[in-house]
Write a structure and sequence with these properties.
Blueprint lengths: L1 H4 L4 H32 L2 H8 L3 H5 L5 H18 L11 H11 L3 H13 L8 H23 L9 H21 L6 H12 L8
C-alpha cells in the first residue's frame, strides 16, 4: 500500500496507469460479452473469465455489475461520437443520427443493455440513475443544438429546438424498446427516417 501513495510519481504512477489500462480492457471485453450473450449473459463471471481474472479480482475494478455496465455505456457514447465533428452550433448532423440508429440495429446486445439499465434506473438510489440523468441533460442540449443547426430557431411545425429536443430523444430511445420486443415487425432505421420526415428533414439510408 505504501508503494501506491509514495510521492514523486515512480511506482505509484505506474500502478495508476496499469489500473486504468486494466479497467479499459475490462470495459472492452465486457462489450464483447454483451454483444455475444446479451444483457443477461453479461455476468461478472463471464467478463472476468474473458480478461483472465477471478470474479473477486474483477470486483476490485468494478464493485457491481451495474457499475461495469454503466462504464460500458459511457464508453459506447464516446465511441459513437468521438470520431465525428459536431456542427457549428455544437450539435450533430441529423444524417449522423440516422446512421447511428442503423448502427445500433446491428448490435442488439448493447442496445438491450442500455434499455434494461435505463428502465431500472428510474428507481430511487439505483447505481445507474445519476449516469442517465446526466446523460439526458447532455443529450437534450446536443439535440437542441442539432435541430437549431438544421432548422434555425423554429422547426417547420413551429416548435423551438429546445421544445423538440426531448421528442427527438424519446423517439430514438423508444424505438429501441419496440425493436427489441419485435425486431421483425419494427424497422428501427426506417421508422427513425420517417420521424425525420415529420420534422421536415429527410435522411436517406446509407449505401
Amino acid at each position: 500500500m505504501a508503494e501506491r501513495t509514495r510521492s514523486g510519481g515512480g511506482d505509484g504512477t505506474r500502478h495508476g496507469a496499469r489500473g486504468e489500462e486494466r479497467r479499459a480492457e475490462i470495459v472492452r471485453r465486457a462489450l464483447e460479452v454483451i454483444a455475444e450473450r446479451g444483457y443477461r449473459g453479461a455476468t461478472l463471471g463471464a467478463v472476468a473469465e474473458r480478461v483472465g481474472l477471478t470474479q473477486q479480482g474483477l470486483l476490485h475494478y468494478f464493485p457491481t455489475k451495474e457499475a461495469l455496465l454503466v462504464a460500458v455505456l459511457d464508453e459506447r457514447d464516446q465511441w459513437d461520437t468521438g470520431s465525428t465533428r459536431p456542427t457549428a452550433s455544437g450539435g450533430w448532423p441529423l444524417d449522423l443520427l440516422a446512421s447511428l440508429v442503423e448502427y445500433n440495429a446491428m448490435r442488439p446486445g448493447v442496445v438491450q443493455t442500455f434499455s434494461a439499465l435505463l428502465g431500472e434506473s428510474v428507481t430511487d438510489d439505483h447505481p445507474a440513475r445519476e449516469f442517465f440523468t446526466r446523460r439526458y441533460e447532455r443529450v437534450r442540449a446536443e439535440m437542441a443544438a442539432t435541430l437549431r443547426g438544421e432548422f434555425g430557431d423554429r422547426l417547420p411545425g413551429g416548435l423551438t429546438p429546445e421544445e423538440a429536443a426531448p421528442l427527438l430523444v424519446a423517439v430514438m430511445d423508444g424505438l429501441q424498446y419496440q425493436w427489441l420486443h419485435d425486431p421483425e415487425g419494427v424497422d428501427m432505421p426506417a421508422a427513425f427516417r420517417s420521424f425525420l420526415t415529420l420534422l421536415g428533414r429527410s435522411a436517406a439510408p446509407r449505401g
